[in-house]
Amino acid sequence: MAGQNDIKAAEQTYNGFIGMMKWGTIASLLVGALVVILIA
């Protein structure tokens, strides 16, 4: 069985990954919109 410390470390890693994915998606959408505006 995983120890409590292992579970906490995994949760921190997961939360960090989800946060990065969220901000990465927002940044990608903004850059994509900027490119479309510049091309149009």
From TrEMBL:
Keyword Membrane set for record: yes
Residue ranges of the TM segments: 20-39
Keywords: Membrane, Transmembrane, Transmembrane helix
Pfam families (alphabetical): COX4_pro_2
Gene3D superfamilies attached to this UniProt entry: Bacterial aa3 type cytochrome c oxidase subunit IV
Residues annotated as domain Cytochrome c oxidase subunit IV bacterial aa3 type: 2-37
SUPFAM superfamilies per record: Bacterial aa3 type cytochrome c oxidase subunit IV
Name the UniProt record assigns to this protein: Cytochrome c oxidase subunit IV bacterial aa3 type domain-containing protein
Source organism: Sphingobium subterraneum
